[in-house]
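Researcher: First entry.
Model:
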Amino acid sequence: MKNNAVRLVLAVATLILGAAGEELLPKVLEVGFPLLLAAVVCFAVRFPVAIAILVALGAGASEDAISSLPFFTSVSFFLLVGTAARLTQLPYLIAPFAFPLYQVWLCLWTPDLSGSVFTRILVSFPIGVLTVAAVATLLSRVERKAAVHEAE
């Protein structure tokens, strides 16, 4: 029971800090840092399915809200990325390509997206790689400090 409470607190804190970070961090050529998308990948790999789904739903809804995107645009993509990360053998190889694909996804569903789609894809790849590496490292350290995976 204690582990479930710790996991829930960690998930909620990650969603709050990720949404705040995405809103406050600077944008590079109209492309921000995908903190919430990286968190979805990390939670999909390390946590039970129920928590991974809830994090994907919360992260997608937060992304839609802070970016003024149409309803369920980010939620559907985040659920797809979480599923792909969970089912494949190399989730951290999929994660850097998820952010450029997300830019294409946004261009498909949002007609008035600022910036060229090609520029956004080129800029999003290195930003996605750095963000996934940073979030994965930070979350693994926090998990160890909080003893999330300890036996009860």
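Researcher: Second entry.
Model:
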Amino acid sequence: MKKKMKKYGLLLLLVVISFFGKNVFAEEIYYTNSSGVAFTKEEYDFYTDLAYDGYQEKVTEEMLNEIKGKDRDSLKMNVVKMCLKDKNDGIMTAQNDDNLFIETTAKSLSMGKYCTPFFCRVVAVLKWLVEPAVKSYDAMGAFIDGPTRLTDPVTTISTGQGAYDPELVRYQDDGFGAIFKLPEETNENTIIDQSFMFEGSGMIFMTYQHTMYNLTLNEASQFDIDFSGFGNVFDFYGEAFNAYDNLPGVYMYV
């Protein structure tokens, strides 16, 4: 009797190993970022389509869980890579009902989102195309008209030599602004990402503002969030008034 039980137990163990072995194979890990977040090939490709190849380093476990187990076709996604139209006054914008991309000779700003049945996440990506002459306190943020922000924004400054968080995030009822000092190693390889979860419909405006003068953190934080501000987000005042380059923002209907 004991021999039969041992035999059945061994068979059960082999079945369990076989079952989980197949699942592990089906969910084979394609890439693991420096924070230990592991991606399948499909998950990796999703974030490349949404933002760029390398954005996977910015993805947290919480963000990955938002799409895990979902078919890519079921995620309503605005792809950041947009068709450009004519260049006017040194600025290029996307040919789309939304304005998801803008580029100058110095930098580009793009925007995308994905949605599950319960919430959406919006992502903005700023890429420096040259080394900025002034490396002081820059600003990146959003004006939210209609939707409800569900999470605090995640903002990361990546230079290739390190990743940095903003020094200050100011919140107001209709949006927020993150302030950070550009690291000394900021150059044409520097990327600043910002994302947050939201629900509801309306419009989201996002922008990046580069300071043309050296400011203190206190001076750079002199702003309100307002549609009439720079990039439809930052209404600077005090020492920050006219200190920024007034890069047009990006926006989308959601």
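Model: Note on the second entry: The CA atoms of residues 152 and 224 lie 18 Å apart.
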